[in-house]
Amino acid sequence: QRDPQGGRLSKEMPIQISNVLLVCPACSARTRSGARYAADGSKERYCKKCSKAIGGPISPPRTAYAKKSN
């Protein structure tokens, strides 16, 4: 168009993961999630409020990050 009317546009856009809260299945609270290495060296997602694991492993086990047994 030539000389379009000014104003605000509404357009659907993706939302960043940092702006989304996850509902923890263990404590039923809206919380942020973190990633940590489990005892076997696999990376898992966990609830930042109750520290319980959410879902299964994110990545396969890595021996470099596994806890050493004495």
Describe what you observe in this structure.
Helix content is 0%, strand content 27%. The chain is an all-beta fold and 70 residues long. It has a domain at 19-63. The strands form 2 sheets. Strands 3-4-5 form a 3-stranded antiparallel β-sheet, with no helix packed on it. Strands 1-2 form a two-stranded antiparallel sheet. 1% of the residues are buried.
Features:
single chain, 27% strand, three-stranded antiparallel beta sheet, mainly beta
What is the secondary structure topology, with strand pairs?
Layout: E1 22-23, E2 30-31, E3 33-37, E4 43-47, E5 53-57
Antiparallel strand pairs: 1-2, 3-4, 4-5
Write a compact overview of the structure shown.
By secondary structure, the protein is an all-beta fold.
The neighbouring-strand order within the major sheet is 3-4-5
**The biggest beta sheet, please?**
3 strands, antiparallel
- Radius of gyration, whole Å: 20 Å
* Helix-strand sequence: EEEEE
Helix fraction, binned, reads: under 10%
Judged by helices, strands and strand pairing, the structural class is: mainly beta
Terminal-residue CA separation: 74 Å
Shape: elongated
Strand content: 25-35%
Say how many strands there are: 5
